[in-house]
Amino acid sequence: MQGEDLLVTCYYIDCGMNAYAISPAQLYSNTPSDFDFKLESLAQGFQSLSDFAQHLAANVDIVFPVIHGKFGEDGGIQELLEKANVPFVGTPSKNCLLAFDKYNASLELNAQGFLTVPNFLVEKDKLAKSELEEWFQSINLDKENGKVVVKPTSAGSSIGVVVAYGANDAAEKAEGIISEGIDDKVIIEVFLEGGTEFTAIVVDVGTANNSEPVVLLPTEVELQSSSNIDIQEDTIFNYRRKYLPTRQVAYHTPPRFPSEVIDCIRQGVSILFRCLGLRDFARIDGWFLPTPVTSLPSAENTGKFGNTKYGAVLFTDINLMTGMEQTSFLFQQSSKVGFSHSRILRTVVQHACSRYPSLVPCSNAWTALSRKIQAAKQAEAIQKGTSKKKVFVIFGGDTSERQVSLMSGTNVWLNLQGFDDLDVTPCLLTSGNGYSSFHNQNMNGISRDVWTLPYSLVLRHTIEEVNAACIEAIDPERMELTSRLRDQVMNELGQSLSKYDWFAGFDIADKQPIKYSLQQWINHVKEAQAVCMVVLEKMVLFNRCWDLQEFLTQLASYGVHTIPKDLRATEEILKSSPDDIWNDLKAKLQTETDLEVYANALERKLQRMPANCLSRAHGVIEMPVSPPESLIFEPFIETDEIIISTKSVDDSTRHLVWKGENKWLEVTVGVVGKRGEMLSLNPSITVKESGDILSLEEKFQGK
């Protein structure tokens, strides 16, 4: 969002409600834990939140709160800013307080004539199991094993959301959420069996006194559970599925619903935005139920909003702050209707400025400066008389780190987009027969394809999802539906935004993905005289990890050492006795049982292994798309445990502490430069929260 016409300053409020001015460089941290412990020594701190608010009043024009959950969406930060007369983006505090509490919001939705999900409120130290059992019976749910969802009333990012069976299980899980300190109120809802979840971004394009919400193209959330009956999991859209790269979820924008249902969703979200007094933007979640639900009393709900001839539409969650990571729903949906990341954020901020009379002079000056800068850039381009340099960014592939490749490639592409002299095209390397056949292909590249991607299709969590979205995008029926709905939404946005001088128009064109064979794509890059940015993990110099191992072994004479490895064919592992393999490799494994469990997971082609199913603590293990041809075994290196110190009387700040019991520390270091002249950057130390290996959450949850 920052540019020559806009200065953005970053602030951070920690769990202890201490506010700091931080460097934008900290935004590239994986999680706040990466810099929390050193804020007191490196960042500008404020004595109190009141002092922080006064600082904002004196130094900024408008604040864009992006805090999720408590204090961010419950009206806390908004009330602080209101008392200090600081303009801010988003909904007023009293409206936040109503909308963010799931139970109170459901009461308001019901009062406004919307279909709602039957629910039961559990408050701290006030749970009456007899009343809960009566509620189960009142909605025709079996009190012994009726399926419900248990979640905090005021927590964001799907934190604490679990499935329960029966009144006793629901009560235990509700008390667990409360005892863990996630929330002191819990809501128990009917599990909407057979329903499909959706989410919709809404943007306000009206005036200060007249809200005019426009709902973008909603997204269908398709949850994909494991096909193996031995993996017990409840299919809900939890934190892990929402924010981490996993094959457990896929998105479809617009949804694969009948047009009447999509229209109903968009109309309902718009009405809700007005009824709840929301401002600038929001995200509203809900469910589409194509079949009648016995727990929704038909007599009471017949005349309520959400009934269609195809089924029922229910709205369940009001999100005052939608996710802002680079592939979030906000950017997925806005890119479908002509907005880049920067343009949608600037549109939201400019609209918020227009609501404050005191900011009119500032907003006018901002608009004038933006136009002046844009005109100067256009004049410079004409004077140079040269076309933009073409750059192709390619990512994907078939390695276990293909999701890292996607995130890295997306980041590279988005950053290069900011240069006016570059024409950047994102590209996906995939298999000609889909990802399921990758491991059966020759490594000479003949069977591989490359998709050139439009802006919106890059914004996905996994390579498999991008590939599926490309295939879906060229389906004739989907093309027609998407084009029609896109035009409808863009017309609504354009008619309203065109009355504002600051609106710079849409900046993302409607394009289709194009599929090339790998050789055709290489020829295309050559013909374009383009620069190719390769962001393929472990696929450039080496086809497999074993090739890399053999190469590194040759560097031992130069002082470069690697962990010794043993290569075994997967077929050998599956057919041989674990005892025989264990005797041969016992120096490299924790226990014989670990090998047996892992081999069993490979043989059954599990998508993932549950947390802590091996002898040492670990998170969920994502398994290969299909069993690899071979496995590499290597000795486990015990590294020293590094912890963050707690603040004591003698310590003015917290710091990293390690005992020095082992001679190894895990570090990561980047290198940059020309071939033969590479320079090393400062290394990073790895601090694990639990277990011996970084979990998926620790590695990627900061995306």
Automatic annotation (TrEMBL):
<dbReference type="InterPro" id="IPR016185">
    <property type="entry name" value="PreATP-grasp_dom_sf"/>
</dbReference>
<dbReference type="InterPro" id="IPR011761">
    <property type="entry name" value="ATP-grasp"/>
</dbReference>
<feature type="domain" description="ATP-grasp">
    <location>
        <begin position="106"/>
        <end position="350"/>
    </location>
</feature>
<keyword id="KW-0547">Nucleotide-binding</keyword>
<keyword id="KW-0436">Ligase</keyword>
<dbReference type="InterPro" id="IPR011095">
    <property type="entry name" value="Dala_Dala_lig_C"/>
</dbReference>
<dbReference type="GO" id="GO:0005524">
    <property type="term" value="F:ATP binding"/>
</dbReference>
<keyword id="KW-0961">Cell wall biogenesis/degradation</keyword>
<comment type="similarity">
    <text>Belongs to the D-alanine--D-alanine ligase family.</text>
</comment>
<dbReference type="GO" id="GO:0008716">
    <property type="term" value="F:D-alanine-D-alanine ligase activity"/>
</dbReference>
<protein>
    <recommendedName>
        <fullName>ATP-grasp domain-containing protein</fullName>
    </recommendedName>
</protein>
<dbReference type="InterPro" id="IPR013815">
    <property type="entry name" value="ATP_grasp_subdomain_1"/>
</dbReference>
<dbReference type="Pfam" id="PF01820">
    <property type="entry name" value="Dala_Dala_lig_N"/>
</dbReference>
<dbReference type="GO" id="GO:0009507">
    <property type="term" value="C:chloroplast"/>
</dbReference>
<dbReference type="Pfam" id="PF07478">
    <property type="entry name" value="Dala_Dala_lig_C"/>
</dbReference>
<dbReference type="GO" id="GO:0046872">
    <property type="term" value="F:metal ion binding"/>
</dbReference>
<dbReference type="InterPro" id="IPR011127">
    <property type="entry name" value="Dala_Dala_lig_N"/>
</dbReference>
<keyword id="KW-0067">ATP-binding</keyword>
<dbReference type="GO" id="GO:0071555">
    <property type="term" value="P:cell wall organization"/>
</dbReference>
